Amino acid sequence: MEKRIIQIGAVFCALAVAIGAFGAHGLKPTLEQFGRIETFETAVKYHFYHGLGLLILGALASKLESSWLKWSAVFMVLGILIFSGSLYILSLTGITWLGAITPIGGVAFIAAWVALVFGVKK
Fold this sequence. Notes:
The protein is mainly α and 122 residues long. The chain has one domain (2-121). 84% of the residues lie in helices and 0% in strands. The protein contains five helices and no strands. Helix 1 runs antiparallel to helix 3 and helix 4 (67-93) runs antiparallel to helix 5 (102-121). The model has no long low-confidence stretch (mean pLDDT 93).
């Protein structure tokens, strides 16, 4: 399980770098058109931070046995997909109602960090 979490974290980190670079160069006119450069940067930032979080979780899971760590990883993945994903789509399309689901991803991030607290508590 821990190797899988590390692999997923590494993929998410690679994607964050690629998406960030593509946004800074290839997507800049679109982001400027919708006035969403900062929104896109926020999505990339949280995407990358939580990709790193997954790497940490994988390393911890190799030392500690806790279902809380698995749940923390699940919540981080959901947070990346919902929080960053909704901001990416909002930034590129201008569909503003997507901003209404972004907080669900934020709650998933919070749940991930809280689950980590319980995962290392034993």
